[in-house]
C-alpha cells in the first residue's frame, strides 16, 4: 500500500488524481538501438472522510486508430479500426478484493513505475484518411462497495521519439544554394539536420541581388509537419503548418513582425530565422 499523509485542508469532495513524474516520455534512437524509458508517478486519493474501498487500480493503454474507407465502414458498421499497441495493469490494495478496506480521511499516495520498451510508436494525431492517431492513456479507479459512486481519473501520456545525443544528424549542416533567374542568388543554411527538444531553430539566409533595383522586403518562414499514414486503402500524406513567422528586412537585418500561433498539439518549440 502507498504512503498516507493527513491533510487539514481537505478539498470539498473526495477525488482521485494521477500525477506523472515527467510531462512526456522520450525514446531515443533509431532501428533496434533504442534506449528504454520509464513511466512513473503516483495515484493520489483524496478523502474527506473515512471511506470503504474495495480496490484501487491503474491501467495503461496505448491505441492506434485508423479510419476505415467508406465502402468498408458500411459493411463492418464501424468508422475506424482500433489496435491495442500496449497495456499494463496495477492493483494497489493487497488482500481479497471481495472485501472492502476502510481508508481514513486524508491523502493516500500509490506510486507506480513501468519500463517502456523502444518498440512503441510515438504519440501522433493527423487528419490523414479522415483522422488517424496513436494515443496513450492512464486510467485510475477507486472502487467502492455497493451502489456508492466510484472515483476515477484519466490522464494522457505523450511518447516522443528522437535521435540519441551522439546522432550525426545533430552535427551535420544543411546548405541549399540556388538562383532566381535575373533577380538574385540565395543560400539557406541550417547548422543542424535535426534539432533536440528545447532547441531554438535557426536558419541563416543570404541574398545577393544580380539586377539593379532588386531587394528583399520580407521573409516568411514556416515549420511544417508531414505525416504519412498507411492503411488498407493505401498511403496518404497530410501536411500542416505548426507555426510561422514573418520578418521585415530593415537596414539589412531581419526583424520579426508577425508570428502565427501554432496549431493545437504536443509541445512545440520556437522558430527563428536570421537574414543576412
Q: Helix coverage percent of residues?
A: under 10%
| Ends apart, CA distance between termini | 62 Å
How many strand elements? 20
Q: Kindly state the mean pLDDT as a whole number?
A: 83
Strand content: over 45%
> What is the structural class?
mainly beta
The residue ranges in which pLDDT falls below 50 over 5 or more consecutive positions are 1-10, 264-276
CATH structural fold name of the largest domain: Immunoglobulin-like
Number of helices: 1
| CATH architecture classification of the largest domain | Sandwich
The H/E string reads: EEEEEEHEEEEEEEEEEEEEE
**Which CATH first-tier class of the largest domain would you pick?**
Mainly Beta
Largest sheet features: 5 strands, antiparallel
Instruction: Supply the number of structural domains.
Output: 2
Q: Give the overall form.
A: elongated
- From the alpha carbons, calculate the radius of gyration and give it in angstroms: 26 Å
InterPro entries: Arrestin-like_C (IPR014752), Arrestin-like_N (IPR011021), Arrestin_domain-protein (IPR050357), Ig_E-set (IPR014756)
Protein name: Arrestin-like N-terminal domain-containing protein
GO molecular function: protein-macromolecule adaptor activity; ubiquitin protein ligase binding
Pfam families: Arrestin_N
Structure description:
This protein is mostly beta strands. It has one helix and 20 strands. The radius of gyration is 26 Å and the shape is elongated. The N terminus and C terminus are likely disordered. One of its GO terms (biological process) is ubiquitin-dependent endocytosis.
